[in-house]
Amino acid sequence: MNYCEAMSYIESFSKLGKPVSSLARFERIMDALGNPQKEMNFVHVAGTNGKGSTVRMIAETLTRSGYRTGEFTSPYIRVYNDRMRIDGVNISDDELAEIVTQIRPIIDDLSTDCSQFEITTAIAFIYFKAKKCSIVVMETGLGGLLDCTNIIEKSCVSVITSISPDHTAILGDTVEKIARHKAGIIKQGCPVVIAPSQSKEAYAVVYRTAAQFGSRLVTPDMSSLIIRKCGHTGNSFTYRRLNYKTSMVGRHQIDNALTAVETLRILKKRGFGRIIYPYIYRGVKYAEVPSRCQILRVDRPFVMIDGAHNPDGMRALADFIRTVPKAPKIMVCGMMSNKDWQTAIGYISRYIDRAVCLDGFAQNTVFAPRLAEMFSEGEVSNLRDALSRAVTLAGTDGMVVIAGSLYLAAALQTHGGLENIDDKIE
Q1: pTM of the predicted protein model
Q2: CA distances from 260 to 43, 322, 344 (A)
Q3: Sequence-ordered list of residues with C-beta below 8 angstroms from that of 24, at least 6 positions apart, any chain
Q4: Non-local CB neighbours of 328 within 8 Å, separated by 6+ positions
């Protein structure tokens, strides 16, 4: 099986698969594959927003500390292989095809109801084991309790990032219900790091779950935080009397960094002794995630892209863009109809001078004319022309912000000219 055949096989399954009430289906698959996940060390990360950035900071630090580090994230932005990386390098096409060839007979024999994500997770476990990773930083797909990554029986650290309403049809319609799913990754006696700035309801659920499993709950000490700078070139701050910087922009990246720092402090005490402050500093500073408050150009015009796709993410993006001294502010916007898109747009629309709205870049997108109505000045475009139109409207002194969905980011990378942004401007 070559790479194209392997991808065709994976894509022949649905994204979510048949609904589950336990991990039994995935357990059968992993039993047949020899349970490689039982022989590895993990940092397991769940949450609504901030997972990708926190994972990247932790993984970058571990690599710089000399550990062979696996990294599992979702969804991908550029290519499917993005989801499985070792020391920042994607799994190769040939390696991916080889593993799919290996697992296909087992999948076909055991479960035609499984999801693309279950297959991807199985590939990742086999890959990281074969490459003898010292540790794997693993992001959940959806929720935590019934997420197939939760087949992990022990973690070095469990991490809970920001929790807010999302995927409510699956996880529940209250913060408490959603938090119970996220807290489902907590394991007996395993330390838990929870990101700061949680709602009282979410924190209470995580606190009770940690107590139930005899797990020490660690929250960043906000009294020891001094923010030095928070702007469109990044952040700098002092935490526990040590200085840090982030290249990723937005106040929320400071919270993600604090979560990563506390996780790394625990890992150092749990056998990863090569983690020291200079490596943490560089890991936090140089960590970058495509399409997460990513600055593509700093002027003529300023262009950024963010995967903000729900109210909490869009509010964090709004908090950032209102501090950027550029005008006019033009937004390229596309959103998914299964999100609370009206609330999300409500947070950011007041800071946008004109929106260029589009749909059709994925299944179940919001009808572009409906999106346009949410802005004081909105118009409709297509995938091919939206970015050029936004750049023209922004002029040399303005700002273009692309947001609403990671699917939008991926589509613009592939078909909308984002890879050649300079050509559209020049």
Answers
A1: 0.89
A2: 11, 26, 26
A3: none
A4: 353, 354, 393, 394, 395, 398, 399
